[in-house]
Write a structure and sequence with these properties.
By secondary structure, the protein is an alpha/beta fold. The chain has ten helices and 27 strands. The chain starts with 13 loop residues before the first helix and ends with a strand.
């Protein structure tokens, strides 16, 4: 029998190609399923409150933050109320900022408060030795700062001078501000035009005393803190919340010594909060190289680059460094738990945010930098992390409010613009004093070179009205993220959203184009039968509200 030769080996048969296409589609579907971000949110199991004070701010006598940014003087053509800019106050009020830290920063430990009270024309000038060596006229002092806080409806946080000040000086400042009766300092306050005390609750006892606040060893500062804190007394019904100068990023020895030696005392605890500082720069904590970007661990050299001129390499490294704050919170909290298992003492992140190179042509000591979409992602990631650790993180203060570092607002004469970071704080304010909702997140990694980080970052809360708010960050600058979420213990029927993104990772607002980066309505989310689905655009911050 003569056998018939096949018309073609398997590659030429229709059945082969149909199976090949079927398997290919199956593998693609499996791959896409593996890449999906999945969440479970337990809307009925929340127990910890996200303190509104996590959304605090910081205004130091640095560059153009106070002078020009906040204070223009009563004779300025820029509209103001008692010398304080009306446009800046209106913008900050919209954020519902819960507290404002002042006068520093490094400036605090060279500031002598009595130089900043009384008739302005009689106040002595001072040299700002830390920030540019400029001369200040002291027109913005205690009364002006507390007037600003009253205009904003925010709680003041005054940082006292331990580095170059005295115990008596700080004790008298507290008396001047808070004592309701008759005393030398209360009478001086009245002579300067303020009858009633301001009742300031939050007092920082020194700042960065490991560095610009005196270059102290932790043992030295622990003893000084115990002495100064003993004389920071509560008056009337106002209990003082005493804040110790905490560690610089990963200085775990500082935290150990402070918690062991200064966290508790005779009759009542000495410490209510301890202040951790951590800045995000274009560098890594690992001794390595990424392309042509030089990386050095904990170097004093500023390796940060431009706030607006960068590529994906610097985008990735910056977000990678922003996420390191969670490791620091976990490790410092573990030390605190040894001495304070009830979590009475708050871990405060008193200075945080991005630190880029200054804008070309500006004073290097003024730390004036632009603010791009990348900074908005850093803010969103950081706030989500703080929310997630609200059992220990009781307060945080982004650096800084106006014209310095990762600012909310930039000014140029009478002009003012809102930064991408401002918009993140405005979107995230729904979490203030809401109940943190526990969640599980399973997401793909965002990979660059040999490094990787989670591509999606999230936190969720339920407010007093029963609404659930979910804030999500898609860190990948090129890929959208499909999210599916199982909502347990929640019977909501509708979802609305807002999104902050732009076509360019370098996008930022300028005085000529102040609305390049701003929130928009987000409609790519669906809620049905307890299942939430959404597609997050690349490089975006998204707020979802369920009710």
């Amino acid at each position: 029998m003569r056998l018939r030769k096949p018309s073609g080996f398997p590659f030429q048969r229709p059945f082969f190609w149909s199976m090949f296409l079927f398997c290919g589609m199956l593998f693609v579907q499996i791959g896409l399923a593996q890449q999906a971000t999945k969440m479970v949110i337990n809307a009925d199991l929340g127990k910890d409150k996200i303190s509104r004070h996590i959304y605090g701010h910081f205004a130091e006598h640095l560059g153009r933050c106070i002078y020009e940014g906040i204070w223009v003087g009563e004779d300025s053509p820029i509209p103001n109320t008692r010398g304080i800019r009306n446009d800046v106050v209106a913008a900050l009020k919209a954020l519902q900022i819960p507290n404002l830290r002042w006068p520093g920063g490094c400036f605090a430990d060279t500031y002598h408060w009595m130089d900043g009270i009384g008739p302005r024309e009689e106040r002595p000038t001072i040299i700002n030795v830390h920030w540019g060596g400029v001369t200040e006229n002291n027109h913005f002092g205690t009364h002006e700062f507390l007037d600003l806080c009253e205009q904003l409806g925010t709680a003041p946080l005054i940082c006292g001078n331990v580095g170059s000040g005295t115990v008596r000086e700080l004790a008298e400042w507290v008396e001047y501000v808070n004592f309701p009766g008759k005393s030398p300092m209360a009478d001086l306050r009245r002579a300067n035009g303020r009858e009633e005390p301001w009742n300031v609750k939050f007092w920082g006892i020194g700042n960065e005393n490991w560095g610009c606040g005196g270059q102290m060893r932790p043992e030295k500062y622990a003893d000084d803190y115990r002495q100064f804190a003993s004389y920071v007394r509560s008056y009337g019904d106002q209990e003082i919340y005493k804040i110790a100068s905490g560690p610089n990023s990963m200085d775990y020895d500082w935290m150990e010594v402070m918690m062991r030696e200064a966290s508790s005392g005779w009759r009542r605890p000495r410490m209510d909060g301890i202040d951790l500082h951590y800045y995000t720069r274009t560098r890594s904590f690992n001794m390595r190289r990424m392309g042509d970007l030089r990386i050095v661990e904990r170097s004093g050299e500023n390796l940060s680059r431009s706030a607006t001129e960068f590529g994906e390499e610097e985008w990735f490294v910056t977000l990678q460094q922003a996420m390191r704050i969670e490791e620091l919170i976990v490790n410092h909290s573990a030390i605190m738990d040894k001495y304070d298992p009830e979590k009475r003492i708050g871990l405060l992140v008193g200075e945080w945010g991005t630190w880029h190179s200054v804008e070309p042509g500006t004073n290097p000591g003024f730390l004036y930098q632009q603010n791009a979409l990348r900074d908005a992602l850093v803010a969103g990631v950081s706030l989500n992390i703080f929310n997630s650790h609200c059992d220990r993180v009781h307060m945080a203060n982004i650096a800084q409010t106006v014209n310095v570092l990762q600012a909310m607002v930039l000014t140029d004469g009478e002009k003012m613009l809102l930064t991408p970071t401002y918009h993140v704080f405005e979107m995230f304010k729904v979490h203030q004093d809401a109940t943190l909702l526990p969640l599980d997140l399973d997401c793909p990694d965002y990979t660059y070179g040999e490094e990787k980080i989670p591509s999606v970052n999230v936190s969720a809360s339920k407010d007093a009205a029963g609404k659930v708010h979910i804030t999500l960050c898609n860190l990948d600058p090129k890929k959208s993220a499909k999210v599916s979420c199982d909502l347990r213990g929640f019977s909501g029927k509708s979802v609305t959203g807002r999104v902050l993104t732009a076509s360019d990772m370098n996008a930022h607002n300028t005085f000529d184009k102040p609305e390049v980066v701003k929130p928009a309505a987000f409609k790519d989310a669906k809620l049905k039968g307890g299942e939430l689905s959404a597609t997050l655009p690349a490089k975006s911050v998204v707020l979802l509200t369920l009710e």
